[in-house]
């Protein structure tokens, strides 16, 4: 369901920095901090980001991902936003039917203080 109360979550702030028209979704239970972001990413493709609440119930990743994939209009191509080094996430996306077809490197400008301008 839409979760505007998660607008300040670091995953959401990063998604808004990298994508346009980001919507935020999560569990109907406000105590559960699972976060789903959907937005227009590279080349205008629908891009999905997902973060599970580490304090939430175990083994729910497949269900959260299935729910996330039910949000866009049927037939909409969806690109997964996943770091290749995140083995757990890569496996979950592969199990959900995602197929690696390429990758994109996103580079952000460096702040004068030396930190990266991530907005988070």
Describe the structure.
The chain is α+β, with helices and mostly antiparallel strands. It is 22% helix and 18% strand. A four-stranded mixed sheet has the order 1-2-3-4, with helices on both faces. This is N-acetyltransferase domain-containing protein. It comes from Barrientosiimonas endolithica.
Short structural description:
With 120 residues, the protein is α+β, with helices and mostly antiparallel strands.
In spatial order, strands of the major sheet run: 1-2-3-4
| Share of residues in strands | 15-25%
CATH class: Alpha Beta
Mean pLDDT: 87
Protein name: N-acetyltransferase domain-containing protein
Helix-strand blueprint:
Blueprint: H1 10-18, E1 20-25, E2 35-40, E3 46-51, H2 61-69, E4 78-80, H3 87-95
Parallel strand pairs: 3-4
Antiparallel strand pairs: 1-2, 2-3
List keywords for this structure.
single chain, 120 residues, alpha+beta, Aminopeptidase, four-stranded mixed beta sheet, 18% strand, N-acetyltransferase domain-containing protein
């Amino acid at each position: 369901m839409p979760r505007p109360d998660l607008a300040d979550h670091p995953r959401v702030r990063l998604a808004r920095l990298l994508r346009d028209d980001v919507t935020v979704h999560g569990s109907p239970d406000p105590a559960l901090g699972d976060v789903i972001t959907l937005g227009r990413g590279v080349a205008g493709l629908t891009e999905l980001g997902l973060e599970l609440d580490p304090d939430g119930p175990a083994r729910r990743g497949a269900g959260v991902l299935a729910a996330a994939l039910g949000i866009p209009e049927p037939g909409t191509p969806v690109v997964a936003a996943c770091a290749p080094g995140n083995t757990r996430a890569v496996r979950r996306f592969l199990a959900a039917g995602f197929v690696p077809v390429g990758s994109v490197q996103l580079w952000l400008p460096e702040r004068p203080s030396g930190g990266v301008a991530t907005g988070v």
